[in-house]
Amino acid sequence: MHSHIIPKNLPDWTKKFGYGDFIFLNHNEDKTADMMQGGKFFRRIKENCWDEDIRITEYEDFQTKVQVVCTIPVMFSYNAKPQDCLQTSQFLNDHIADLIAKYPKNYIGLATIPMQDPQLAIQELERAKAIGHVGIQIGSNINDENLSEEKFFPIFEACERLDMAVMIHPWQMMGFNSMEKYWLPWLVGMPAETSRAACSMVFGGVLERLPNLRVCFSHAGGSFLPTLGRIEHGFNCRPDLVAIDNKVNPREYVGKFWVDCITHDIDALEYILKMQGSKRVCFGTDYPFPLGDLEFGKFIEESNLSIEDQTNIFSTSTLEWLNLDRKLFI
Ligand SMILES: [Zn+2]
Description:
Blueprint: E1 3-4, H1 13-17, E2 23-27, E3 33-37, E4 40-45, H2 52-60, E5 67-70, H3 82-102, E6 107-111, H4 118-130, E7 135-139, H5 153-162, E8 165-169, H6 184-203, H7 206-209, E9 215-217, H8 228-237, H9 239-242, E10 258-260, H10 266-276, E11 281-282, H11 298-301, H12 307-322
The chain binds zinc ion.
Zinc ion (ZN) binds at residues 2, 4, 169, 218, 286.
């Protein structure tokens, strides 16, 4: 339920809009492509980032049939002018909509929306649903603003109303510039970002006010679940700082949201499962990127987890999170 895809060819949005550093793809002869951001090299990607058939074949190698796809967070464009971000979002959402129409048993789509403009965001959310998306992927912060900000609430409310699931993905990691060495933004910043998003949605009362909103936090919820004891203690010892917008203990929400299983560590996953229950832990890979689980849950299959828990992780949890029927894919 957590994999990234990008269209093979992207418009030159920087040229078209006349500003910014929108991602552009430079294709190489060896079938790789360089993601360029404002003329600067961002990341080299391979064919499996865009080629729909190669992706299906690579999934089959690991007995996996269905992939829930969303864009790469660097494509969010939340800092662009809202109308321009609407345009880039529409382009990316149309690409995934075509894909799911072509391969309905192999692909499920999560859209991207212009979060910086709640009205346009809801407009695109509605359109995305109409063209076949079953949820959205959003960043852990929106231009450095937390998801607890009241202006984002109508978007979450619309997701609940429209039965659209929400995946929260870390991006624009806090402290990025001061810890670039050793890949620390990815290794330290990302888990912190996800916890930032979870804490914001819990303390800001988003999950309390929208009990039917189905949210999934990436990378097993980042550092949120492993540090929940500290978070709960903070809630109890300094309610004047923490419990100002929501009086409910953060532990109450555990098992109500979903997380993926991307931990690379069976002990950590077992701890997460003990907290969440296996029906709230989904099978994610972060394919096709190197920090993902590119062995497709081998560490889970080799574990002592019961068949029931494994079935929940490998399919049931994701179907429940997205409110989809298993029969659609058989
Ligand atoms: Zn990811």
